[in-house]
């Protein structure tokens, strides 16, 4: 009691007779009500203390009990603070009520109490029943009791009361009411922090309750369990060794694997503290270390450092999610997987499993997976590793996008980099760990067929390929009959593609054959598989020179009966062959009506069967048969001609996603129009060529994925070499493009008007394109320019000067617009050929080069200079042209535009070399030209020209051939398109031509093979890559090993920096404080000072206020720290500070953090309390788990962009602005 109250009470009692004092005290006690103030209650309690009376005391305590029940706790707290005896009695009474409530709720329905004990049976949720109002009132009263306990002083309370409160709160953590759980947690947190309940039996009770909560299915109670565990382990001076057992560590791993980010942070903090606790007992410590090699007797300090490093890596890889930080952790991952680490492998598997979780950011998930794919796995924990392999790694490694995104075409062959890596990984795993062979094969096959697998066909093939390579590489490894049967079963699955199925059948038959050579087998399956292998080898040897899966049957056809669809397809194929036989039988005339009817029926079958590959391959032969075309070009059969033209164009459209159709279709078109020139008009040849040029067929992802599997079949055995790409897809599409270009080069002799017609139709979109054009446009193709060049060669020489000038002007206009180097090269080629064919037009180039404005289009002038030199070197160029060109190069070599100046300097030596050969005295005798030439040649860059200079050189005479057109080095000027065909494709085409037929002449020669580009270094060889990988692993392990001996290991993740500056009106909120003790960057602290002062915070807490003198701090803080209270708060004291502020002053703690329980800033759920402590996380690890557990609310800033997070000062400014918006109206 206060001295004033005591004196007043004594004076009052002195003025009343002893007989009336008791009545006075009783009357005052009875007069107390909910309307009474704190002073009334406090004064009555003071009188009662001076004049004790049982009846009055009972009345006062009844009033206090009523206040507690109604939640009016301020008066109760005031009395308890002033009167220790009342405080002790209230605590005792309240603890009793809480204990009774715990006993009552323990057996209540699940609507009120959820988690009873580990062995309790789940209760049914039946909804409120009659009489349940009692439970509601008990819960309400218990919440108020706990709120009171959490605010009164427990000092001096006896151990029995503390134990009652402790046991009751443990029970109430399983309540359905959130408020009841929260108040119980806070009470336990206080008891733990005061070191009142860390006896051995208390720890056993806590651990038992933690297990009850964590093992309960509801994630809400799991979170409560981990929060209790974290508070206990963080405050315990020592932990009972019997508690720290495999179950203990297993629950930490479970939280890391299955929890959200907040739970994972808690588990990492639990792990750190648990390792520290385990280090006090040698036997306990062995349970988390690798019991082998040099690390068996590692010092406790080393073990702590290794696990601290592990926690840091886990936090960086899984929680921080910045890609650059994850990349920096590769060295740590290498170390953790090495035998130098004492961290048990199961923890590494846990980290990797979390890193491969579907909830992870895709780029980081991919980086972790690729690291695991090339790493040397530790398999110390056999069971745990196989579980990781089957449930985490292989489900990620078999994702379809990993295969599709790594498809590459090298030298005309499609390869899948990820598939090759996956196969190599499986092979290495099995060969390097023979003791795991059977179990690992089981896990791999289970991942294909089990619930963790996916349905991506190619993934299955590469996994099986890895197993087969391991068996072939190590003779000691042998697949069991069960394994072979499982692989055979996979081959029969309906979702496998054609090549994937063929490979799987061939591989399992081959493996069965090899198995019998090693170990005899009596099973029926193996015997049948061996017989099938022998039949397959025999079939491969009997295949014709050009085998086909459609004609000769696939490998799977030897094992599986044909489906109804396949039977129908064969019937249609037989119908097509019969129709072709009738066309070739000249002795049996066929009517047009019968032909049209048969063609319609065949086409209907094609559509009904959904365009099967075998039928599509023969359609060109059906519709473009010579006899059919001769019939169609007759004037009376116009309908038939229209039908053939329409279906031919439709087939080209179908070839768009089916590139394997291109060659046979174009080959038939080329064959028929060169044999029957009149058919060009009937087939509308120009439209067909333009269609392909504008929309070149390309292999779809599905076809490419099939292609990459074909070489795997040949790798099984050399005897299977006939089953190559041509067996499944026919000639490559590159052969089709070569056929098209060859056809275009001859169309002028087939029909004189076709080249100009094709050119005009293709060139029109280029001429009318929008200005400025896009660097890469979807409608532009290399093939268009190649076709235009070939067409120009056929009609430009005969064109009139006026017509040629108009085309030249238009072509140079397009060249002036085009930004892409490849397209510019071909446009320059066309322009140069026009100048060569029409020398009278060379004044045009001089007119353009004499332009005074070099800033308008410097690239265009540079192109004209290259063209001019090419034309000057051409046959028939006169001396005057070379002289004028050389004269123009002098001022151009001094242009203010770098592009023009450099181009002129490059071209001068080339031009002078030519005039010296031509012995043009007017130039060679000119000392100015010689001096300029000598100066340019003396430049260092001239002797070592850049790549684009070497590959961009063009000779309009010697390089004017098909070989240079399709595979010249100019393709390497950019990477927008790959080479479509090669000189070898033309040679293969010419070999297949009928030697008895004379083809129309081509407008361009084939040319000699293109010289290979010089290779400066060989850095990508497999041997070099392997050596570099091994060297990197050793360096990483050595570097990190040395770091553990150098001093303490940082337990924080890697840093990324940023900046932000926000503006607002300055207000002062004395109940708002920003806690930034976790932030250590002075630059960011200065920014926090600035936004805190601008938005009117009452103060800012920093680890060290002296940072305000740092120049980085002041550079962003400006003068804000002079107008803001700066307080010191050590990071280690933050939790206690927040707990004290919440407990004693009623502050609400708000953290800015992205977690699964965060509310969006600005949403209806985000109501910031007026008395607010705003906690900012560090730039690296954010808010630690212990401090997260103190937060009443976590807020997340909504964002639209893909960047994951804001800088700390920016985030603080946004939240402070929202706080000001909500509370500025309350400021006076």
UniProtKB/TrEMBL annotation:
Q: Which InterPro entries match?
A: Alpha/beta_knot_MTases (IPR029028), SpoU_MeTrfase (IPR001537), TRM3/TARBP1 (IPR045330), Trm3/TARBP1_C (IPR044748), tRNA_m1G_MTases_N (IPR029026)
tRNA/rRNA methyltransferase SpoU type domain residues are 1072-1216
Disordered: annotated span:
542-568
CDD domains found in the cross-reference section: SpoU-like_TRM3-like
User: Any idea which UniProt keywords this protein has?
Assistant: Methyltransferase, Transferase
GO biological process entries? tRNA methylation
Q: Does the keyword Methyltransferase apply?
A: yes
Q: Which Gene3D superfamilies match?
A: 3.40.1280.10
Q: Which GO terms describe its molecular function?
A: RNA binding; tRNA (guanine) methyltransferase activity
Does the UniProt entry include the keyword Transferase?
Answer: yes
According to UniProt, the name of this protein is tRNA/rRNA methyltransferase SpoU type domain-containing protein
Q: What organism, scientifically named, is this protein from?
A: Cercospora zeae-maydis SCOH1-5
The organism's lineage is: Eukaryota, Fungi, Dikarya, Ascomycota, Pezizomycotina
